[in-house]
Amino acid sequence: MKFSRIVITAVAFVLLLSFSAHAEKVRWKLAMTWGPTLSPFTDAVEGMAEMVNEMSGGEFVIRIDAANKHKSPFGVLDMVKLGQYDMAHSASYYWKGKDIALLPLTTMPFGMTAPEQYAWFYHGGGMELMQEAYAPHNVYSFPGGNTGNQMGGWFRKEINSLDDLKGLKMRIPGFAGEVLSELGLAVTNIAPGELYTSLERGTIDALEWVGPGMDIKMGFHKIAPYYYTGWHEPATELQFIVNKKEYDKLSDKNRAILTNAMKLASYNMYIKNYHMSADAWSKISTEYPHIKIMTFPDTVIAAMKESNEKLLAEKSKDSPMLKKILASQHKYLEKSREWTKMSDYYYLQDNIEE
Ligand code: CA
Q1: Distance (Å) from CA 7 to ligand 1 centroid
Q2: Which pTM was predicted?
Q3: Do the domains at 24-146+234-287+320-354 and 150-232+288-318 have one common CATH topology?
Q4: What is the pLDDT of residues 164-178, one digit of tens each?
Q5: Cβ within 8 Å of residue 116, ≥6 positions away
Q6: d(Cα 83, Cα 70) in Å, to the nearest integer?
Q7: For residue 131, what are the CA distances in angstroms to 29, 96, 113, 163, 228?
Q8: If you measure from the C-alpha of residue 153 to the centroid of ligand 1, how many angstroms do you get, rounded to a whole number?
Q9: How far is the CA of 266 from the centre of ligand 1 (A)?
Q10: What superfamily would CATH give domain 24-146+234-287+320-354?
Q11: How far is the CA of 209 from the centre of ligand 1 (A)?
C-alpha cells in the first residue's frame, strides 16, 4: 500500500514535469506572401525559423505556410492581426490601400539605398517609427531582408518619351505605382505567383519584379525583352510581421532569439540576392543576347521626379503618420547621402570603366 502510493506520487511528479516542459514549448505559424520556392525571399523565412529552432534547443518552433497553402498572399497582415497566424513575411508597401503610412517602410522612389536605409532603421529612428505606424494594426514589424537596388522592369517596346508610357498597363507596387499613375499608366499590383501569366496573356503590358537574380528565372524576357534600369525601388526591405500579443507573451530569451534570428536572416537575404543578381548579370550577354538593357530617357526620369515630389506633398496631407515617416527619411537621406558620396560614389567614379 505504502509502496504503491510512492509509485503513484512518482508517476504524478514525472507527468507534471513533462507537462510543464511541454507547456513551455512555443509553436508558431507563419504565413508568407510568396510561394514555397521563391528564393531568396523564402530563404529569409526558412533561415529565420531554423535559427530560432536551433538557438532555442527545439523549444521554439515556427511552421511556415506558403501562399499556395493559405491562398491569401495579400491577406497575411490581416491574418496576423486577427491571430490566425502568429507571424508573416511580406512587404509594407503592399498595405498602401489599407494604410498609406505603411508604404515608405519598404522603399521609396529616388530614396535611400540599402546601407543608408538600414542605418536609418537601426540608428536613425526608423524602427521606432515602424512600430508606431503598425501599432493600430495590432502587430510589430521588423526588417525582413533587402533586395538592394531593383531593376525598372520589363517592357514589350522601347520607351523613348512620356507618350510611350501613356496607357501602358503595368504591374508596379508601392509609391512608384502612384507616380506612374500620375504619368498616365494603368497601374496594378499582382501576386508574385501570377506575374508571368498576366504578362503572357496581356493582362499587363509591362511589369517590374526585382532584379536579374530573380527576374530571369521567371522568364519575363521571353515576352518583354526591354529591361530598364531602376529608379523606383532602391532598397526594397521585406518585413516580418508579428502578432503583438504573441510577441509580448514570449519569454525574454525567446524574444531575443526571434529578434536576432530575424535580423541575421534579413542580412543573409540581402547578401544572397546581391550574389544572385551579380551572377545572373554576368551571364546575360552570353546566355540571353536578345535582352535589351535600357535606361529611361532623361525627360522621363525628370517627369517621374516631379510627379514623385508632388505626390509626396499631397499624400502627406492625408496622413500625419506618413508625413512623420517621410520627414524622418528625408532628413536621414540628406545626412547619409553626403557620406555615400564621399565614400562609395567617389570611389566608384575612379574605379568603374564605362
Ligand atoms: Ca519590385
Answers
A1: 65
A2: 0.91
A3: yes
A4: 999 999 999 999 999
A5: 235, 332, 333, 336, 337, 340
A6: 14
A7: 21, 16, 21, 41, 34
A8: 8
A9: 17
A10: Bacterial extracellular solute-binding protein, family 7 (3.40.190.170)
A11: 4
